[in-house]
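Dear H.,

Thanks for agreeing to be a second pair of eyes. The structure we're designing against is below in token form, covering all 185 positions.
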């Protein structure tokens, strides 16, 4: 099922990724600055990682959407749950937006829809990780109800060997919904 939106004056299609999107997903991952991929546990530029993502979506362990401008993927979001862990109620949210599409509202649309979908699937806690210098992403997540919970120093190592810190943000979707209802936010 695909949904059409107008963002920044352009028609954007939102839908779940399908196996036929594997090449386009790899192309999108290759187009995003490498630094923006550091917070994701696995390298999305690798075909086996994309295959695992699509399998996880089919099994229900991953909720995801892609945003398409014409025939080009310009953003992705996934909420990932490990249903066999002690923390099956916690879903990790991973958002990637192409640099040309940042600051136009696309990331917010994807994030808000994913928060609602994860809550509907039983998520009682959502987490997000990013490097502290990704201030635009941090601001977006905070505006949607996430709060900073941890800073893990030297947690990430880039391809050149440099270490980077990892910021961890989290939210309770039910509490955030109640707050919005109570205060009209």
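And this is the sequence the design step returned. I haven't edited it by hand at all.
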């Amino acid at each position: 099922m695909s949904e059409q939106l107008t963002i920044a004056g352009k028609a954007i299609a939102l839908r779940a990724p399908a196996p036929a999107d594997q090449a386009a997903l790899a192309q999108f991952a290759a187009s995003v600055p490498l630094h923006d991929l550091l917070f994701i546990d696995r390298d999305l530029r690798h075909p086996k990682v994309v295959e695992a993502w699509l399998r996880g979506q089919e099994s229900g362990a991953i909720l995801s959407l892609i945003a398409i401008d014409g025939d080009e993927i310009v953003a992705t979001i996934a909420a990932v749950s490990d249903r066999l862990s002690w923390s099956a109620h916690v879903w990790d949210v991973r958002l990637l937006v192409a640099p040309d599409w940042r600051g136009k509202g696309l990331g917010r649309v994807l994030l808000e829809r994913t928060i609602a979908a994860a809550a509907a699937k039983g998520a009682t806690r959502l987490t997000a990780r990013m490097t502290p210098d990704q201030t635009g992403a941090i601001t977006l997540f905070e505006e949607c109800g996430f709060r900073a919970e941890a800073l893990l120093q030297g947690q990430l190592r880039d391809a050149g060997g440099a270490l980077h810190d990892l910021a961890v943000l989290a939210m309770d979707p039910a509490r955030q919904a109640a707050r919005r209802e109570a205060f009209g936010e």
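Two observations from my side: The first helix runs from residue 22 to 31. The radius of gyration is 16 Å.

Warmly,
E.
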